[in-house]
Specification:
Pfam families: DUF7824 (PF25148). Residues 429-591 form the DUF7824 domain. This is DUF6493 family protein. Strand 1 and strand 2 form a beta hairpin. The protein starts with a helix and ends with a helix. Helix 27 packs parallel to helix 29 (449-460), helix 31 crosses helix 33 (567-576) and helix 32 runs parallel beside helix 34. Among the domains are: 275-388, no CATH class; 686-864. The chain has a two-stranded antiparallel ribbon. It is mainly α and 865 residues long.
C-alpha cells in the first residue's frame, strides 16, 4: 500500500494534501485506478465511521489526481461525497496550480450541476475568484450566492452593504429574473422589512449601483412568464417596492395589460391598479382601456371583474364620448359565472347606452346578452332600444350520454401481449386495459406458453421480484394484481388454494375485493399448467357488459375444446352479461339451454330470471355523515362460488369499517365493473369513501361516479347520496366528476332531482357538505345546460338551508348560501319556474340589502313573475 493510499484510508487529509503537493502530474494520474477502486469499496460504508473518516481525503485525492476538466467536475460533484466532502479551501488550493482556463472550465461544469448535487457554493465561488472567469449564472451558483449573502446578515452590516462590493452584481441580479423556481428562495431569504432583498435592491437602484430600468424590466418579464404563486410573489413585492413612476407606467402599458389579462390574481390586480390610475387621469387611451377591459372581464375572479366595472363606470362618467369604444367589452362580463357581476355590467349598459353614437355598436352587446337570464336580457334590449325578444319555452339541453365503446380485440401474438403488459405496468390501469391484457395472457399461455414467457422476460425483468427465486405471491395486492398472474406464468410462484389473505379483513370493501381477487387468483393457479383457452368474463363493451350471444358462443367454444370452466370467471361473466334487453336475453337463453353443459343451463336460468330489485336500505347517521345500510341480496347467494357470496350480505354502518387495507383507489373502477347492471350494491360499499371527499378532504374517490352513472342499472338512494357528497367535495376534480355523473343521469332520465336535493339539504344541515363548495358544482352543471335540473335540485335543498334565516333573530347564514340563491334565481329566471319556496319569504323580508337578502328577493320575484 502506498503512502498516499494509506493516508486516504486513515483519513489524514493534511498528509494527503502534503503528499499530493510533492507529486508530478504523471505520478498523480497513476493513482487514479487505485482511488476509483477505493471509492467503490467505501460506497457501502459511506455512513459508517470508517467511511466518514476516509471520504473527505478520497475526495481531495481524486480531485487532484484527475486531469480532465470533466473528470474532475464529476469527481467533485459525485453523490458519494455529498455528505462527507473535503473542505472547500483545500480543494481550491490543490487545484490552484492548474491552467486558469482549465479551472474556469471546471467551475462552470460544477455550476451547471443541479441543486440536488449539493456542490458547495464556497468551492464554486473560490474557483471563480481563482480563475477570474465570468460568474456562472446557473441555478446552483445563484442559489448558493443568495444563501451565503443572506446568512451573514448578523455579522457584517446590512444586506445592501454586502451586495454593494460584489464585482459581478448586475449579472447575478439579472439572473434572479431568468432562473425558474428561484422566487421561493428569493422570497424567504432575509425576510421582510428594510433588510429584505426587495428593499435592498431598491436602495441599490436608487443610489445608482443597479440599473433601475433593468430591474423593472426584469420584474415585468418574470411576472409575464408566470409560475407558482410562491415563485411569483417575491417579484411582485420587488416591483411594488420599486414603485414605478408615472412615466415608467406609461412606457409599459402593454406589459401591464398582459399581466392584468393572464397573470395570477395578485399580480393582475397590481397591474390593473396601475392602469386604472392612468385611465382616471386620461393618460390611458380609450382603445387601450377597451383592450384591457375585454381581457379582465373575461376572467372569473370577482374582485378583478368588479374593479374593472367600477373603473369603466368612472371613465364613462368623466368622458361620455367613450361609450362607443368602452361599452362593447362589457359583453365579456355577460358570460361571468356570478350573476352579480352580470347585473353590474347590465347597469353600466343601462346608464350609458344612450350615449352610443355610431350605428351598430350595440349589436355585440345584444348578441352576448343571450348568456344572461331573461330578465337581464330584456333590460339590455330595452337600454339599447331593441325590440324585446319573444320568450320561448325553456328546453333543457343536456350533453349526450357517452356511448359505450366495443373493446378492441384481445392482443394475439406474444409480442403484442408483452407490449400490453408493459403499458399496464407503466401506467395506472383501467378496466378495459386490464381485462384485455389478462385475456391475452391466458390465451398466450394456452396456445404457446414458451413464446409468451420469452416475450415477457424483457418487460418483467425490471420488476424487483423477478430476479429472486421463488416469490411469495401474497406480496401482490391492490394495483399489483396483474403481477400475480405474471409471477405464476413465469414459474415464480402461484397462490395456494386460499384466496387473498386480506379479503376477510372485515371492512366494508372486503366483499368487492374478495370477488375481484378470487378470479385473479384462480387464473394464477390455472395458468402455469392448465390454462383455459380464453376468459369468459372479458367485457364486450367499455361499460363492462358482455353481450349474451357472445357469452353463449364462448361457452360453446369451451364445450368444443373440452375445457374446464373456472368457477370465479364464470360467476363474473354472469354478473356482467346484459339482461336488460329481454328479447336478446331470451334468444341467448334458448341457445344456452341446448348446450348441454351445467354452465349453459345456469346461464339460461340467469338470463330468464326476473330483473333483480334494488337492495332495501335504511339511513343511519354517523357524526356529520349520513350513510346507508342494506339488507341481504339473494341473487348472489345461490349458485355462485363462495367468494362471491359476501357481495349479497347485509351492509352495516358501525361494523365492517375497521382494519381496511383497500387504500388503493386504482381498484374502484374494477369494483364498479363487477356488476355493471347493478351499481347500487357497489355504491353502498364505497359510500363512506365518497363521504370522505366532503368531510375529510379525500381526493380522487369521485372518479367512480361517472362510471356508475353510465352503467346500465337503476340509480338508487346510494348513488344519489354519494353524488350529493361529491358535489360538495373539497377538491375540484371530485366535484367535476360529480357534475359529469349528474349530467349523465339527467340525460338518461334516471336522476331523481328531488331526492338529490333533499340529501344535499340534510348534508348541509349536518355540516358534511359546505354550501360554498356546492355552489361551484351546481353552477357548472347549470352552465352545462341543466338549468331545470339544477333548479329542481335546489328547490328541494334550499328550504333546509333557509329555515333559520327568517324571524326576529335569524341565524348566521352559512358561507355560500347567497351564491346558492343566486344560482337558483338564475335557473328560475331561465326556465320560467314558478311557485312558492318554503322559508324564502322570511329571508327576503329581512331588513338591509345584503347579498343574501337581495338574492332571496330576486329569487322570490322570479318565482312570482
Amino acid at each position: 500500500m502506498s503512502a498516499l493510499t494509506d493516508a486516504v484510508r486513515a483519513g489524514r487529509i493534511t498528509d494527503v494534501a502534503n503528499l499530493l503537493d510533492g507529486m508530478t502530474d504523471g505520478e498523480r494520474r497513476a493513482f487514479v485506478p487505485e482511488l476509483r477502486d477505493l471509492r467503490k469499496e467505501l460506497r457501502a460504508d459511506r455512513w459508517s465511521d470508517r467511511g466518514r473518516r476516509a471520504l473527505p481525503s478520497l475526495h481531495l485525492a481524486g480531485a487532484a489526481c484527475q486531469t480532465g476538466a470533466a473528470a474532475v467536475a464529476n469527481w467533485l460533484a459525485a453523490t458519494d461525497f455529498a455528505w462527507s466532502p473535503a473542505p472547500a479551501e483545500l480543494l481550491i488550493d490543490i487545484l490552484s496550480d492548474r491552467d486558469l482556463d482549465w479551472i474556469a472550465d471546471v467551475t462552470h461544469r460544477l455550476a451547471r450541476r443541479p441543486v440536488s448535487a449539493r456542490v458547495p457554493y464556497e468551492l464554486m465561488h473560490g474557483l471563480v475568484l481563482l480563475s477570474a472567469c465570468p460568474v456562472p449564472v446557473t441555478d446552483a451558483y445563484v442559489r448558493g450566492w443568495m444563501t451565503q449573502i443572506s446568512a451573514s446578515w448578523a455579522r457584517v452590516g446590512s444586506l445592501a452593504d454586502r451586495l454593494r462590493p460584489e464585482p459581478q452584481l448586475p449579472e447575478l441580479v439579472a439572473s434572479l429574473f431568468e432562473i425558474d423556481e428561484l422566487g421561493s428562495v428569493f422570497g424567504w431569504l432575509a425576510g421582510d422589512g428594510p433588510n429584505s432583498w426587495q428593499s435592498s435592491l431598491t436602495r441599490l437602484a436608487d443610489e445608482g449601483t443597479l440599473d433601475r430600468a433593468k430591474l423593472l424590466d426584469g420584474c415585468v418579464s418574470r411576472l409575464l412568464r408566470g409560475g407558482r404563486p410562491a415563485d411569483v410573489r417575491p417579484f411582485l413585492r420587488l416591483l411594488q417596492a420599486l414603485a414605478p413612476t408615472p412615466r415608467e407606467q406609461r412606457e409599459r402599458i402593454a406589459d401591464w395589460t398582459a399581466l392584468a389579462a393572464d397573470a395570477v390574481p395578485p399580480v393582475a390586480a397590481y397591474a390593473q391598479s396601475l392602469l386604472a390610475a392612468l385611465a382616471v387621469t386620461g393618460e390611458l387611451p380609450h382603445p387601450r382601456l377597451a383592450e384591457l377591459s375585454e381581457a379582465v372581464l373575461f376572467r372569473t375572479e370577482k374582485t378583478l371583474v368588479r374593479a374593472q366595472l367600477v373603473l369603466l363606470g368612472k371613465v364613462l362618467t368623466q368622458d361620455p364620448t367613450g361609450a362607443d369604444t368602452l361599452l362593447p367589452p362589457l359583453a365579456q362580463a355577460f358570460g361571468h359565472p356570478d350573476s352579480q357581476m352580470q347585473e353590474r355590467a347590465v347597469k353600466l349598459v343601462e346608464r350609458h347606452a344612450s350615449r352610443i353614437g355610431e350605428p351598430g355598436m350595440g349589436d355585440e352587446l345584444l348578441a352576448a346578452a343571450d348568456q344572461l337570464s331573461p330578465a337581464l336580457r330584456t333590460r339590455v334590449a330595452e337600454a339599447l332600444g331593441a325590440a324585446p325578444e319573444r320568450r320561448e319555452e325553456y328546453e333543457e339541453t343536456l350533453p349526450p350520454v357517452p356511448a359505450p365503446v366495443r373493446l378492441a380485440p384481445t392482443p394475439g401474438s406474444p409480442a403484442e401481449v408483452a407490449e400490453e403488459v408493459g403499458v399496464l405496468l407503466a401506467a395506472v390501469d383501467d378496466v378495459t386495459a386490464f381485462e384485455r391484457t389478462l385475456d391475452g395472457l391466458v390465451r398466450g399461455a394456452h396456445s404457446d406458453p414458451d413464446a409468451l414467457r420469452e416475450a415477457l422476460e424483457p418487460v418483467v425483468g425490471r420488476l424487483p421480484w423477478y430476479a429472486s427465486g421463488n416469490v411469495n405471491v401474497h406480496y401482490f395486492h391492490h394495483h399489483r394484481h396483474i403481477e400475480t398472474v405474471l409471477a405464476a406464468l413465469l414459474n415464480k410462484g402461484a397462490p395456494g388454494s386460499s384466496s387473498d389473505p386480506l379479503s376477510d379483513a372485515g371492512c366494508v370493501h372486503s366483499p368487492l375485493g374478495r370477488a375481484f381477487n378470487a378470479r385473479v387468483w384462480e387464473i394464477a393457479r390455472r395458468i402455469p399448467a392448465d390454462p383455459p383457452p380464453f376468459l369468459l368474463a372479458t367485457p364486450t363493451w367499455s361499460s363492462g357488459l358482455i353481450d349474451p350471444e357472445e357469452l353463449v358462443d364462448r361457452l360453446a367454444a369451451y364445450r368444443e375444446a373440452d375445457a374446464r370452466v373456472m368457477g370465479t370467471d364464470f360467476a363474473q361473466a354472469l354478473l356482467r352479461v346484459r339482461r336488460q334487453d329481454r328479447t336478446a336475453a331470451r334468444a341467448a337463453a334458448e341457445r344456452a339451454a341446448v348446450l348441454g353443459t351445467p354452465e349453459g343451463t345456469r346461464l339460461a336460468q340467469w338470463l330468464t330470471a326476473s330483473d333483480p330489485a334494488l337492495p332495501q336500505v335504511r339511513r343511519r347517521t354517523d357524526g356529520p355523515r349520513i350513510l346507508l345500510e342494506s339488507a341481504e341480496l339473494d341473487s348472489v347467494q345461490r349458485d355462485f362460488p363462495p367468494e362471491f357470496h359476501p357481495l349479497g350480505r347485509p351492509v352495516t354502518v358501525y361494523a365492517d369499517r375497521w382494519h381496511c387495507y383497500h387504500w388503493d383507489g386504482d381498484l374502484r373502477p374494477h369494483w364498479a365493473a363487477l356488476s355493471p347492471e347493478q351499481p347500487e350494491p357497489v355504491m353502498i360499499r364505497v359510500l363512506r369513501d365518497l363521504s370522505d371527499t366532503a368531510v375529510n378532504s379525500a381526493r380522487g374517490v369521485a372518479e367512480i361516479l361517472p362510471r356508475l352513472a353510465e352503467s346500465a342499472g337503476e340509480a338508487g338512494p346510494a348513488l344519489h347520496l354519494g353524488l350529493a357528497y361529491a358535489l360538495g367535495a373539497r377538491h375540484e376534480e371530485d366535484r367535476l366528476s360529480a357534475v359529469d355523473a349528474l349530467l349523465v343521469l339527467a340525460a338518461r332520465g334516471l336522476l331523481d332531482a328531488g331526492r338529490l336535493g333533499t340529501d344535499l339539504g340534510e348534508l348541509v344541515g349536518t355540516g358534511a357538505v359546505k354550501p360554498s363548495r356546492l355552489v361551484e358544482s351546481v353552477r357548472t352543471a347549470a352552465a352545462g345546460g341543466a338549468n331545470a335540473t339544477v333548479w329542481e335540485i335546489l328547490r328541494h335543498a334550499l328550504p333546509a338551508l333557509l329555515a333559520d334565516q327568517s324571524g326576529e333573530r335569524p341565524g348566521t347564514p352559512p358561507r355560500g348560501l347567497a351564491d346558492l340563491l343566486a344560482v337558483a334565481a338564475d335557473c328560475a329566471e331561465r326556465t320560467g319556474a314558478r311557485g312558492e319556496l318554503p322559508h324564502l319569504a322570511g329571508t327576503a323580508d329581512r331588513r338591509g340589502s345584503s347579498r343574501l337578502v337581495s338574492q332571496a328577493r330576486r329569487l322570490r320575484s322570479a318565482l312570482a313573475a
